[in-house]
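Hi everyone,

Forwarding the result from last night's run.
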Amino acid sequence: MNIRVTFYLKSTSKNNKRMAIYASIGFKGKRKQIATGLFCDDPENDWERGGLKGKHQRDNQSKLSNMAMEIEAYDAHQFVDVDQVIDKYYGAETESYCTTILEALDYAYKSQDNLVTRTTKKHITIMNHFKDFIKSNPKVYSNFSIIKGHNRQMFKKHSKDFKKYLMLQTNVKQNSTVFEYFSGIKSLFNKFKEDHNDMIPDIINNPFVGIVKAESQEERKKKALERAIPWSFIERIEKVRHEDPVEEKWRLLALIQSYTGLSWIEFGKEDVFDIKTMIGGSALINRRVKQKKEYIVFLSKNVVNLIRDIGELPFKPYVFDLNYKDIECSRNYHSYNSYLKKLAKEIEFEDGNLTSHKFRHSFGMQAINVWKIPLHIVAKMMGDKIETVVQNYADLNRDNIILEQKNCMEAYVEMTA
């Protein structure tokens, strides 16, 4: 996709051999002509192969050559049609577009609104990794063009090389992390393409699609099982007591998480422990901060007592109108994790670290596989989709499936007897 300039003569008068010199500008299969403001008084002797000849025409020929070089040197990717090329030559403002991958990613990052700090940090991290990837072998990699046919066009092979590069980084190499990074960079490129698809007709297809596959359901389920804390350790936490009032509040919070499945961020809300009295008993009813989905958690007398015992949490609220202050959220989370490391030693939990997320997983696994609460109810309790619950918490082995069918059928038989 190049711009080409040629020159030709055009008569100015039927009775005069003097001819005007016009430029013919070709771009994307179309040509348009513009006047150069120069003339050839003796075409027969002064004109040859689209240009002026002779020493006396040296200055004018230089003007034509400079005009051609200027126009042909334009970055063709910033134009949609030949009219824009001509506008550029005449000094009119033409909108310039991003033509490289780093420009496209940066545009997408800056144009997104209402992103939480964690997401923006992830996008910055992804872009920095890609810049480092380019620097790792500058002879092969570059700030690739996103225009089809460009001599530095980005291809899927470059994305595959980027994946290999990430897998060699000690802080990234887990497949789940690489998948998360590729999901982020895919969404950035999609955002750019969505805004420019009608402006840049030769934009490449998203080169980050299909490079990293999501984990299979079995792999996700296996990891979910590994994240769950055996319930016997929850029972051990019940028996622990701390003299330090702050540590005792952290302990109570760990138990409340285990019995409600609330994620860490929900505890930043001022009204997180506003207990609603329903026909069936006490419950926590609210909306999740990130997903905005409603959760409804039934509270046993034991959990109600835990909430009353904890009183106020050992930190100030950081969620207001479902928007949260990331710095305060992270600071308090680190304090909680520091306590959980100490708690793990007290209850002799040696299978990895105790974490806030593991308590949520333990609740989901316990609710489905031990308490036998139906999937759709657990999904409502956790503020998740049913598919998410199945993928992350349900260990639907044969015994559980048969037992659930047996209970349902027996209940129906009793009802119709």
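The CA atoms of residues 99 and 146 lie 6 Å apart.

Cheers,
N.
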